[in-house]
Structures are given as structure tokens and as C-alpha cells.
Specification:
alpha/beta; six-stranded parallel sheet; two-stranded antiparallel sheet; 10 helices; 12% strand
Length: 316
């Protein structure tokens, strides 16, 4: 795999961060509605992982999936339009925050059901192999999903079939409001892979370059016909489980400790240490700010779906 471009990775992470912050602002203003689950603090996981993929590789993700969708290549304008319920959204304004899908970049869909995207990715990976393609699939899920039965069924079948799939656990320490340490009796979630006969690895989920290299190795194994890998990326969400979460289940001190490990802060420090000028980084950030603002305005000007279109593309 080629060396990662840290500046490009930082741009993607900054785009995700500003998108999430803008969505929170729009939610407060009543321009975005429904449930809103933000991934602030977890930008390095999806950015590093998706950078190791090809555009035609498959992906599934969770209801906290805005970042994964952007990292996989969906334009930010299509994301804002979707969350604002406009016809120019990636699902024509019908999916909303938890169901973002974009087949043009291999995104088979986010889902509001915990763990539901995992077997979908296994099926996509098997389908690619049966068609003679070297495409791989990646599925993003949280630590809580590893206690779902479908997680274990999918890992077992992927191992038996040697499916070219990467199981990517974003371990943000909490299954909704419950600390994951109260739900498991093992130190490493990645160790669950050994029960099914394939590798499980742990990576610092706030180090975007480390995530890239771990995922690149898993992708290479999958393309070579060596089967799946389980990656546990240890990270932390700096926001609540959803908008309005009072966050009474964790201390401010804990959050502040993790804030000092913010993946954007770490990547920015690394860029400066490698000789990137402050002005160049500021220019990139201003470019992203303008892109986000333009996407919001375009969404506001876009039409809403017509009531008579409510049953279009509904098959079941």
C-alpha cells in the first residue's frame, strides 16, 4: 500500500468534524430533526480505514455513520441535503441521519439496528468473490455490537467462507450509556477473532496513520484470499450518545482526559512537526469551512420530496 498522505487524512477528519458540529447547530435551529448521533472524537477511525480502501470496495456502517459516509467518498452536499430532508440528498431525503446509503461509492448503508450491517458486509464480500472480483468489504460497528448474536454468526461464516471482509470495531468505551467494561470479561475485544480462526488486532483509534496501516494490512490479506480480520480501534466519543444526552454516566474529567487525545489535535501536531506551516493548515481548514457552508446553503435551496412520492422505491 502507498504511504498515507497525512494532510489529506487531516482534511477528511476536519471535514467530518465541521460537518458534525454544523449538524448539531442545525439541529438546535430545527433544520435537522429526528435522532442525531454524532461521531465527534472518532474521526480517525473511519478516515484511516477508508483511505486503505478502493472506491469500489463495499462498506456498511452504523447510525453514528456520518463520518464513515464522508470518508468513503459521498459528497458533503449530499449528506447535508439528506439530513435536511431534501431531494438532492444521497437517499433523496428519505433516509435521514441513520440510514445514509450511497451505492456509487460502495456504501451499502448505515443502519439504526445494532450490528445489522455486519452480515450485510459478509454477504457483499462473498458476492464479490463469487463474481471473481477482488473487491473487499468493511463493516464499522461499535463495541456494544460485539455482544450481539449476529456479530458471532457473521464472524463464524466469514471464517468458514474465507470471505474478504474487515470487521472494524470502533471501541468508544460505551455501549450507549453503559461502559463496555461492565459487559465483557476480556481485556481486548479483538481477541474474539481467535475463536473463529482469524487475526484480531488492536490499534490506537485516535492515530489516523496507525489505523490506515492496520487496515491496509487487513485489506491486503482479504484481497489475497486469506480471509477476514477483526480490528479493534480504541477511541472515544467526545459528544453524548445522541443529541440531548445528559451524559450523567461519565465524568467531565474523563472526557477532558480524552479531549487531550483528540485525533485532529494529534494529526495537526504531527503535521507541524513534519514541517507543515501553520498558514497552510489554516488555509486547508478555511477551504473546508467554505465547503461545509456551501453545502448547507445548497441544501436549503433544494426542494423537499413531494408527498405523492412517498411510496416510490418502496419494495417491501
Amino acid at each position: 500500500m502507498p504511504e498515507p498522505d497525512l494532510l489529506k487524512l487531516y482534511r477528511t477528519m476536519y471535514l467530518i468534524r465541521r460537518t458534525e458540529e454544523k449538524l448539531e447547530e442545525l439541529y438546535r435551529q430545527g433544520e435537522v430533526y429526528g435522532s442525531l448521533h454524532l461521531c465527534i472524537g472518532q474521526e480517525a477511525t473511519v478516515t484511516g480505514a477508508c483511505a486503505a480502501l478502493r472506491p469500489d470496495d463495499y462498506m456498511t456502517c452504523t447510525y453514528r455513520g456520518h463520518g464513515a459516509v464522508l470518508a468513503k467518498g459521498t459528497p458533503v452536499r449530499a449528506v447535508f441535503a439528506e439530513l435536511m430532508g431534501r431531494k438532492t440528498g444521497c437517499c433523496r431525503g428519505r433516509g435521514g441521519s441513520m440510514l445514509l446509503t450511497d451505492l456509487s461509492v460502495g456504501n451499502l448503508g448505515a443502519t439504526g439496528i445494532v450490528g445489522a450491517g455486519i452480515p450485510v458486509a459478509v454477504g457483499a464480500a462473498l458476492g464479490a468473490r463469487l463474481l471473481g472480483s477482488d473487491q473487499v468489504a468493511i463493516t464499522f460497528f461499535g463495541d456494544g455490537a460485539t455482544n450481539q448474536g449476529v456479530f458471532h454468526e457473521a464472524l463464524n461464516l466469514a471464517a468458514v467462507w474465507r470471505a474478504p471482509v474487515i470487521f472494524f470495531c470502533e471501541n468508544n468505551q460505551y455501549a450507549e450509556m453503559t461502559p463496555i467494561r461492565k459487559e465483557i470479561a476480556i481485556e481486548r475485544l479483538a481477541d474474539r477473532a481467535c475463536a473463529y480462526g482469524f487475526p484480531g488486532v488492536v490499534v490506537d483509534g485516535n492515530d489516523v496513520e496507525a489505523v490506515y496501516w492496520v487496515t491496509a494490512e487487513a485489506v491486503a490479506r482479504a484481497r489475497a484470499g486469506q480471509g477476514p480480520t477483526l480490528i479493534e480501534a480504541v477511541t472515544y466519543r467526545l459528544c453524548g450518545h445522541m443529541f440531548g444526552d445528559p451524559e450523567t454516566y461519565r465524568s467531565r474529567e474523563e472526557v477532558e482526559t480524552w479531549r487531550r487525545q483528540d485525533p485532529l489535535l494529534l494529526a495537526r501536531q504531527r503535521l507541524l512537526a513534519r514541517g507543515m506551516g501553520v498558514e497552510a493548515i489554516a488555509a486547508l481548514e478555511a477551504e473546508v469551512e467554505a465547503e461545509v457552508d456551501a453545502a448547507v446553503e445548497l441544501a436549503r435551496q433544494s426542494p423537499e420530496p413531494e408527498p405523492e412520492e412517498a411510496l416510490d422505491d418502496v419494495y417491501v
